[in-house]
Amino acid sequence: MTEREKMLSGELYDPTDKELEQLRLNARKLARKYNSTDEDDQEEQVQILRKLLPATEELPYLQAPVYFDYGCNTFFGKFSSANFNFTCLDVCEIHIGDNVMIGPNVTLATPMHPLLPEERNIRMREDGSFYNLEYAKPITIKDNCWLASNVVVCGGVTIGEGCVIGAGSVVTKDIPPYSLAVGNPCRVIRKITEKDHMPDGIEKN
């Protein structure tokens, strides 16, 4: 297996691999270019996002600045958006559904490191170059979710459809559908139900 294949399958891999270094460099150059593009230059922003997010058919609205590890490992659904300072460490795949609202300063972090220091510390090859080993776990955010400001989602987490994750939460475990969840670590407070309907929100049958 290549280091890229190991990375995407959740196995220990070497992030100093040349292919991976080039992919990260490309994503970061594109993100910097996007971040320096004015909001009224939508055609230029679309062209950049097409390269940064090649796996996404219908592009999200991303309020610059944004930060990606790879870009090509992130998949957005329709009508999704992210506010300022969206950080997407997509070492493993990140799947974001339709109509997902992401608040400012949200981080989606798939990378993981061994717990034992001797397994995660820097190592030296015979040629004198240095490397380390890490791994990653995927993240899935289902349709119709809202992640409020300063939320962190850790690798291996699935957030179910229709969830609201409160500001400042750190999500370390799966959240079931239609849950209001908050805190560090993030915990479900209650279910979201029809009782949460707002009078001027949507028409009810």
UniProtKB/TrEMBL annotation:
The keyword Transferase applies. Keywords: Transferase. Gene3D superfamilies: Hexapeptide repeat proteins (2.160.10.10). It comes from Jingyaoa shaoxingensis. Belongs to the transferase hexapeptide repeat family. It comes from the Bacteria. The keyword Lipid metabolism does not apply. The lineage of its organism: Bacteria, Bacillati, Bacillota, Clostridia, Lachnospirales. This is Sugar O-acetyltransferase. Residues 4-58 form the Maltose/galactoside acetyltransferase domain.
